[in-house]
Design a protein that fits this description.
By secondary structure, the protein is α/β, with parallel strands linked by helices. It has six helices and eleven strands. The longest helix is centred in the middle third of the chain and has 31 residues. Bound molecules: zinc ion.
Length: 253
């Protein structure tokens, strides 16, 4: 169970989350100048806030780094749904065409070089519905890509996986549960395929080592000698994947 409280601060937006799973107080800094303070239920709120206070310099440095990166690597404009948009698909910017159609429901066609939305008249002027339809179709593609990659890489590594969840987490690209359940961000379908593959290999290597020890990284490297390049891509460009079709903010629970 989580509880969210929102506070506003001159420098950033603070969100608090009381977690039943967290074992320590944790601070997450997100590129959109949002700071999330996660703390276990047994930690008094005042202690969590004091902890955040004690990390002010660290938070500021992180926010500054994001701001610098934003200047060096500006984000594309948000979709206007007028046929001039472009979106990242498997590492390539492709145009998003919008075509009026005599259909009962919105339809989305994804091809390697373009995405086309076929929009019935009742959906025109409803950007939220267009965004949702596109997101659903991309999630479906992510699911297919992920399954294929998981099967290929699990075989190469000699491990098994159990279930696949396609989600939209804010800070992680993937996770691996102790029972072999793999969860991946649908946004990886926008990244270059080699980057998606790296995340899959990373999670599958957790089937052997459930930590980020040297042995773990040695195994990742054995499977993907150039993994560091893909890891860096996510660090440097990952925020672009969150910029497109932004996640709707969770309301306070
Ligand atoms: Zn990991």
């Amino acid at each position: 169970m989580t509880q969210q409280l929102e506070l506003f601060n001159a420098e950033y937006r603070l969100r608090e989350r009381v977690s039943t799973k967290a074992r320590n107080i944790r601070i997450e800094v997100h590129p959109e100048r949002e700071v999330v303070l996660v703390y276990p239920r047994w930690v008094p709120r005042a202690d969590a806030l004091a902890f955040l206070q004690s990390r002010t310099e660290w938070v500021r440095a992180k926010l500054d780094a994001f701001a610098e990166r934003a200047v060096a690597d500006p984000l594309p404009p948000l979709p206007r749904w007028d046929g001039t948009d472009e979106i990242l698909l498997r590492g390539t910017l492709v145009p998003v065409m919008v075509e009026p159609a005599r259909l009962r429901h919105l339809a989305v066609r994804i091809e390697a070089e373009r995405i086309t939305l076929f929009v019935p008249s009742q959906c025109q002027d409803q950007p939220q519905r267009l965004a949702l339809a596109l997101k659903r179709e991309l999630m479906h593609r992510a699911q297919l890509d992920a399954r294929r990659l998981l099967n290929e890489e699990a075989q190469r590594l000699g491990v098994y996986w159990r279930d696949l969840g396609i989600a939209d987490p804010h800070t992680q690209w993937g996770s691996c549960g102790p029972d072999g359940t793999i969860s991946l961000s649908w946004r990886l379908v926008m990244a270059p395929p080699a980057v998606f593959r790296y995340v899959v290999v990373h999670e599958l290597c957790h089937r052997v080592h459930m930590d980020h020890s040297e042995r773990f990284w040695a195994l990742v490297e054995q499977q993907l000698p150039d993994f560091d390049q893909h890891r860096r891509w996510l660090r440097d460009h990952g925020h672009h994947l969150h910029h497109y079709l932004p996640k709707r903010r969770a309301r306070g629970a």
